Amino acid sequence: MEEMPRQLIDAARQGSERALARLISHVEDRRPGWKDAMKAMYPHTGRACVIGITGSPGAGKSTLVSEIALRLATSGLTIGIVAVDPSSPFSGGALLGDRVRMRGISAASGVFIRSMATRGVLGGLCQAAKDVVRIMDFARKDVILIETVGVGQDEIEVVGAADHVMLVTFPGGGDGIQAIKAGVMEIADLFVVNKADRGGADETASEIAAMLELSSEGQAGKPPVFTVSALNGDGLTDLTAALRGYINRKKAGPVLEQAHVRREILGILEREVTCLIRERVASNGNMEACIARIMAGTSDPYTAADEIIALFAPASRIKGGMP
Ligand SMILES: Nc1nc2c(ncn2[C@@H]2O[C@H](COP(=O)(O)OP(=O)(O)OP(=O)(O)O)[C@@H](O)[C@H]2O)c(=O)[nH]1
Ligand SMILES: [Mg+2]
Prior knowledge:
- Mean pLDDT is 83; it is low at 88-98.
- Helices cover 51% and strands 12% of the residues.
- The chain starts with a helix and ends in an 11-residue tail after the last helix.
- The chain has helices spanning 5-13, 17-28, 34-41, 61-74, 95-101, 103-106, 125-138, 153-160, 175-178, 184-187, 201-215, 236-252, 258-283, 286-295, 301-312, and strands spanning 49-55, 79-85, 111-117, 143-147, 164-169, 190-193, 225-227.
- The protein has a seven-stranded parallel sheet, sandwiched between helices.
- Helix 11 links the parallel strand 6 (190-193) and strand 7.
- The chain folds into three domains: 1-44, no CATH class; 46-253, P-loop containing nucleotide triphosphate hydrolases (Rossmann fold), CATH 3.40.50; 262-312, no CATH class.
- By secondary structure, the protein is an alpha/beta fold.
């Protein structure tokens, strides 16, 4: 039986992790009432400090996220973690691995972990992740840490939507920096060289600092570079202090930016429209008829798409035709 979202919403707001998990699933699966739930939650959100953590595979992001979450939680902050997993749908991937790696903290009070698969999210990973972040924000998480591997455009978009972006790298014959994708460097406002226990970290940190020196010439304030070991805890006190600075600033005055709101509306629209199209196409036989015509040589995929769009947007003029 379907539980009413209202009860879930209230319980999640009161701090029930079970309700929070169910509420997220409810929205992810687009079960009845999901949108009303989002509408009801929205006015109570905007307080959480959202920090995106990205970097090359195996850089130690999950280990670092666990350590940071533990330290912040100890000081009384409530933490949400969104682990965006790059696993393929075939292998089943590291989803379980992440859970196991982060298990140490799941029992700790105030830290809530949610994994999301990168593939098969209808209408875009970015909006799906934003929904999860917003729900955690509503559930009074002070800090939300989103981990993604900085490889695909989707993943970069996900962290790019955060308030702050931390780029994690590690010393390894220069791999560390070369592995940093173009586009990630620009959105990062905090750099971390992890695995300092292995040596070579200071050199990597200097190389990053030099790169930043070049790229931020003339700009006020360069992003800081931290050298840490998530394994033995070196440098984590300084890094956590920097994050606390971000968190306090957000708490002092959450700001709603026009550009942010615009992106959010567009993101929701994209996801909604994609879902709507799939649903409609699946529920009427038009697609099959279109395919049959294309196979018979009397139509083409562009015409088919126009015809399908016209089915549920009959009043709209289809753009792209000859003037
Ligand atoms: N020596 C050393 N190893 C570390 C450190 N941090 C993490 N590791 C190890 O590096 C490996 C990868 O760590 P993860 O935290 O899973 O790295 P990740 O970046 O989340 O990996 P993916 O999510 O698979 O991209 C694990 O074996 C960790 O134990 C560190 O500071 N020093
Ligand atoms: Mg990981």
